[in-house]
Amino acid sequence: MKAEFTAIIEPAPEGGFWAICPEVPGANGQGETIEDAKNNLREAIELLLEDRKADILRGLPDDAIQDKVMVG
Fold first, then answer.
1. C-alpha to C-alpha distances, 19 to 3, 45, 68, nearest whole angstrom
2. 3-state secondary structure the chain
3. Phi-psi region of 50 (alpha: psi -120 to 50; beta: other; left: phi over 0)
4. pTM of the predicted protein model
5. Is the Cβ–Cβ distance between 48 and 27 less than 8 Å?
6. Percent of the chain having pLDDT more than 70?
7. Are 39 and 25 spatial neighbours (Cβ–Cβ below 8 Å)?
8. pLDDT band at 64, cuts 50/70/90?
9. Beta bridge partners of 11
């Protein structure tokens, strides 16, 4: 699945950069460069979304139908 999220990146007081994603609460990253911060943020978003999907699927009965829906 591909999706586009907003990255807010700012210089960190101690050096380097930190990044957050307002659409995914708890997703943040940091790095020595802007690109490092973005890559770390991307990984954090992926991990959080995988974890949330696992939480949702955990409660489904075995006979539930899972399918994909295109949005946008």
1. 17, 11, 30
2. CCCCCCCEEEECCCCCEEEECCCCCCCEEEECCHHHHHHHHHHHHHHHHHHHHHHHHHCCCCCCCCCCCCCC
3. alpha
4. 0.77
5. yes
6. 94
7. no
8. confident
9. 17
Comparison of pLDDT for 59 and 20, the residue scoring more? 20
Q: How distant, in Å, are the alpha carbons of 41, 43, 66 from that of 38?
A: 5, 9, 31
Token representation of residue 33? 């460069």
Nearest to 43 by CA among 21, 59, 12: 21
Query: Where is average pLDDT lowest: 11-15, 41-45, 48-52, 59-63?
Result: 59-63
Measured between alpha carbons, how far is 35 from 38 in angstroms, rounded to an integer?
5
Instruction: Report the amino acid identity of residue 25.
Output: P
